[in-house]
Amino acid sequence: MSNGANDKLPMTIRGKAMLDAELKKLLLEERPSVILAIEEARAQGDISENAEYEAAKERQAMIEGRIAEIQGKIAGADVIDVSAIKSDRVVFGAHVTAVDTETEEEIAYQIVGVDEADVKKGMISVLSPLARAMIGKKVGDTVTVQSPKGDKEFEILSLQYK
């Protein structure tokens, strides 16, 4: 798999800010705290059967892993200012309102980056089946999404970028 510019995953400015904040906390608070815990556990003497030392080393590994993961995501992100998008089609960052053509239930979601997705907050991943079905469509278009309960059809009622 190549790692060219086209392989970058889209992320909103808000999504990058969330990752930046988590990275800052890990680097400035969590990492120094776990290093201190390791030093204190070492000071207790024999570390071969020291549960505090083992727990601190395990926590350090988790922190370092997450730091590397976040740095990789930020490096591999295509950060997009959604408010600058001017399109009559559904693209990344769109706030889409649609209606289930069978139940007439309305749904409203913003299509966001993978790390920002939170269905309860009305944000779906750009890689989700619903987002993938909507990308490129216009208001008035109908999309079909496969779900465990069978295919569902949605008509796009509105879209905006804010």
- The level of helicity is 25-40%
Number of domains: 2
CATH topology of the largest domain: Chitinase A, domain 3
Secondary structure category: alpha/beta
Q: Choose one word for the global shape.
A: elongated
Rg over C-alpha atoms, rounded to the nearest angstrom:
22 Å
Please count the helical segments.
3
Q: Which second-level CATH architecture of the largest domain applies?
A: Roll
- Strand tally: 7
- How is the quaternary structure best described? single chain
Q: Strand-and-helix sequence, N→C?
A: EHHEEEEHEE
Give the percentage of residues in beta strands: 25-35%
The largest pleated sheet is described as:
5 strands, mixed
User: CATH superfamily of the largest domain, please?
Assistant: Transcription elongation factor, GreA/GreB, C-terminal domain
User: For the record, what CATH class of the largest domain applies?
Assistant: Alpha Beta
What are the low-pLDDT stretches, counting only 5+ consecutive residues below 50? Answer: 1-5
Mean pLDDT: 90
The end-to-end span amounts to: 34 Å
Q: Give, in spatial order, the strands making up the sheet with the most strands.
A: 5-4-3-7-6
Q: Would you kindly provide a written description of the structure presented here, covering whatever features stand out?
A:
It is a single chain. The protein is α/β, with parallel strands linked by helices. The protein has two domains: 5-80, Transcription elongation factor, GreA/GreB, N-terminal domain (Helix Hairpins, Orthogonal Bundle), CATH 1.10.287.180; 82-160, Roll (Chitinase A, domain 3), CATH 3.10.50. The chain is 38% helix and 25% strand. The chain is built from three helices and seven strands; from the N terminus they run βααββββαββ. It has a five-stranded mixed β-sheet. A two-stranded parallel ribbon has the order 1-2. Helix 1 (13-43) packs antiparallel against helix 2.
